[in-house]
Amino acid sequence: MSKRENIVKRFYEVAKAQRSVRFNTVVRDPIIAEELPRTGFPAAYLESSNEERLNITKTLRECNMDIAIVITVNGRDRDTQRNVAIEAIEESIYNDTEINSLVNSIELTNIDIVDLGEASPFATVKVTFGVTYCYTI
Questions:
Q1: Rounded Cα distance, 103 and 135, in Å
Q2: Nearest alpha carbon to residue 127 among 88, 96, 74, 98
Q3: Other Cβ atoms within 10 Å of 96 Cβ, number
Q4: Contact indicator for 48, 70 with CB cutoff of 8 Å
Q5: Rounded CA gap, 67 and 92, in Å?
Q6: What is the CATH number of the domain that holds 22?
Q7: Rounded Cα gap, residues 66 and 69, in angstroms
Q8: Does residue 134 fall inside a structural domain?
Q9: Is 85 inside a domain boundary?
Q10: What phi, psi does 70 have (nearest 5°)?
Q11: What DSSP string runs through 20-84?
């Protein structure tokens, strides 16, 4: 398995295992909120996205990758639920020793509210982490 996949897989495992906010659904494919039962919330899905690679030597590459965690909550106090979930996932990611052993650095780079003020019972936020890691070829 590639180092990139190992990093994303560990992000997934940490999101699934953290208990500050218990995510009832954690997957690696996009979620359609309307298709989840009420018991499926809060829900999160993870996706790796953009990556820049730089050759350090003939056999060593440094990579800067984005990992997005999209969190959807349901019900009342949606803004509070989102904020609590963001803090929980951020702390869990930063404090995980296995992630820290796989990467050179992690930084929460963006928090984007999806459909701000939406009238539905759902609220979604995209939390993007910038990850720097190295691998040999």
A1: 10
A2: 88
A3: 18
A4: no
A5: 14
A6: 3.30.70
A7: 10
A8: no
A9: yes
A10: -100, 120
A11: SS--SEEESS---GGGS-GGG-SEEEEEEEEEEEEESSSSEEEEEEEEEEEEEEESS-HHHHHHH
Within a 10 A sphere around the Cβ of 58, how many other Cβ atoms?
Answer: 8
Q: What is the pLDDT of residue 3?
A: 96
- Residues pairing with 21 in the sheet: none
Q: Please name the helix (run of DSSP H) or strand (run of DSSP E) that holds residue 106, with its range, or none.
A: strand 105-114
Structural domain contains residue 95: yes
The domain in which residue 41 lies consists of: 3-47+69-128
Is residue 135 included in any domain, yes or no? Answer: no
Residue type, 65: M
Structural domain count of the chain = 1
- Tens-of-pLDDT digits for all 137 residues of the chain? 899 999 999 999 999 998 899 999 999 999 999 999 999 999 999 999 999 999 999 999 999 999 999 999 998 899 999 999 999 999 999 999 999 999 999 999 999 998 755 557 889 999 999 999 999 98
Task: Name the nearest CA neighbour of 46 among 19, 15, 24, 74.
Answer: 15
